[in-house]
Model the fold of this input.
Amino acid sequence: MTQTQRTALVTGSAGFIGFHTAQRLLQEGWAVVGLDAMTDYYDVTLKERRHQILKQHQGFQAVEDRLEASGTLMRLFEEHKPDAVIHLAAQAGVRYSIDAPRSYVEANLVGTFELLEAARAFPPAHILLASTSSAYGANTEMPYAETHRADHQMSFYAATKKANEAMAHSYAHLYHLPTTMFRFFTVYGPWGRPDMALFKFTKAILEGAPIDIYNHGDMRRDFTYIDDLVTGIVQLIEAAPLQVDQREAALTGDSLSPVAPWRVVNIGNGQPVQLMKFVEAIEAALGKVAKKNFMDMQPGDVPATWAEAQLLEQLTGTIPATPVEEGVAKFVAWYREFYGA
Done:
């Protein structure tokens, strides 16, 4: 590592978003320490292949351990003194949180606590933590803006992520740790998770199996292509919230805390897309029509998510813009190559 090279700690580096984020940072000259527990929530082979790609970079160091394990993060912070921490490791999935809520307590609550304690002991220049658009919960005012109240989460997964926001705010206030929370909006793209709709739909359509379309297709999502999301994350590293006594003019619609160097930022297109249009993009990319099984809304789900992206644009100068047709086609091309489909 050169004297001027910066180090990033990326948790969840073998996960979908963590892999792409670590890869981008490596391409931009960062040294990256990637922590992942390689849990079997979905096919571990996919995680192993992602880490294999990252390990081809000289600047990448893989650590396989659970972030909630006492002392793991403290040791990594002490050894590497990361300049930026990008916390993406979590037990994901709205529906799985109904079946296995304890795994969300361990990974999302205890794991984030361990990270905050390590940051308290060895403060980085900026901590960036993943939240979710699901934190907006029962809020029906669209588009979702960071300054809206988000008090009525509809799944335990969303509740743990909202708790992460509150936990991080308290540490930002008490220990003056510059902290940015991301609320992601329906991220998709190559190397995506098998439990996500795009992956499941593509697999089913190729196999001639029906796809389950919830709320009878009356769903809208702010589909965010992975490369756009990663651009937002990496650009926000340089936009750390200022300490209270260092501030000047406020940004319009800023979620900056009045008592801490902490803010929450949506990363989304600001353009809701009907679920059926998304399905049509998959059909077009595959050249095959789906067999559709229309169903009622699932518990914990919401009919629409849609980001107000003004704050992201003010902080970074860009917002996600990849059309779903283009992003879906790139995923399908990856899927066919990876699985020989």
